[in-house]
Amino acid sequence: MTKWIEDSQIDPVVVSSRIRLARNLKNDTFPLYSSKEEAIKTLEKIRQAVDELLPNGEYVYYNLEQLEPREKMRFMENHLISPGLVEQTGKSAFYLRNDEKATIMINEEDHLRLQTLYPGLKLNQAWEECEKIDDLLESKLDYAFHNEYGYLTSCPTNVGTGLRASVMLHLPAMTITGYIMGLMDALRRIGLTIRGIYGEGTEAVGHLYQVSNQLTLGETETEIIKKIDEVANEIRNREQNTRNFLLENKKLEIEDKVYRALGILQNARMISSNEAMEQISIVKLGLDLKLIEDEKYKDLIKLMIDIKPGNIQNRSNKAMNRIERDIMRADIVRNYFS
Hints:
Elements: E1 14-23, H1 36-53, E2 59-63, H2 69-77, H3 83-87, E3 93-97, E4 102-106, E5 112-119, H4 123-138, E6 145-146, E7 150-151, E8 163-170, H5 172-177, H6 179-189, E9 192-195, E10 208-213, H7 221-249, H8 251-267, H9 273-288, H10 300-306, H11 309-316, H12 322-337
Antiparallel strand pairs: 1-5, 1-8, 2-3, 3-4, 4-5, 6-7, 8-10, 9-10
Helix pairs in contact: 2-11, 8-9, 8-12, 9-10
């Protein structure tokens, strides 16, 4: 179980806040276009700087090529590294801080992807921490920077500040009512985007969504973070109001949905990751609305992550096929909800 999520229940809607900075080294070929030899030289240059600058023992270094597939999957599922880093396995690595709230990814789409991740709505705290790490590394590494355009990156949408601020939100009520479509349109109109659980190109499983800025040029870091923070608060209020509406006007339908979900989780002998997450999400909605009052059923966001394929295999310490994972997942959720 990843450590950052241990107090994720502090907010019923905002699961986490993430800051990510994209940086590249001046005169080094961008990772997407570099040979393996060039990428390894860049990796070693960055590794030397990190080892010199950061407190000894505070971070653990992982080379992607030396990890089992299930281990890479687990780090990604726990939101500690990006799917893009896993795709660059032959020439990428990362440092993970002991509290698992900070990651330094090397040779993803850019030479450096710095990430800080906190539970709840803590964008400013995540930014302060990420900026400290960035300033420290910049004191040793020569970043690719343009006086007019800012930090230079592989993708034009990251040029400028190189900053992506995002929040992960649990939005079951807005999804059930269909209001989520209107929210998506509204966010696009103000330059924001809403994506699935692992960001770009992924689906929203378990009613979990990520809201982030689309562009990093033309706004300061403070302006970007302020906008996401304000929008996250507004979405939280809308979700809470929609939950109250359901409770007042469709209580029986929601109660039925919640107890059906609980029945599936208590009795399933095989269950896929997506189905389990959907049903757990509905039970969490029932708990948040106090339709179910049971102290046993808590930390459900943790449970959603625990039952993902990589975590399932890591738990059993072996590679497993889909059927084996579905059986073990059913055992886990059945025991949890018994």
